[in-house]
Design brief:
Blueprint (H helix, E strand, L loop, with lengths): L1 H12 L6 E3 L6 H10 L4 H14 L18 E3 L14 H4 L25 H10 L1
Parallel strand pairs: 1-2
Amino acid sequence: AKVAGALKCLHQSGVASNIYVVLNGRMTPTQKDIVRKKAELDTRLYFGLLHWFKEHHPAFRDLVIEDESSAVKIELVEDPDSDSNTDISGDPTKENKEEGATFYFSGGGEPTTDTSVYKTSRELNEFRRKR
């Protein structure tokens, strides 16, 4: 319900989505296609689940569900293909095998201007000295 409310709020506000998928590192074209497909939001499934929860779970009974056309799109961030970020396929069997994903969620106050991504300003200063 909170996700549905957040998506609705984003859509109505006219601001860009805050759901980003960043494609980085060297990958073959097929691997990049796999990531792009994984980044798609299946709105039919998502709204189907919302309707199911509304019907079967008391906490969702009063939820107002918008139509599927109001769903916010997920933003895919990637650089154009180049020699620096695109590999030539060597073993398609291994390269096309999916091994999971890594998700990063920053806290509400991270990073800060005082500490950047470090826990303390001391850690940040130590990093700067090493450079």
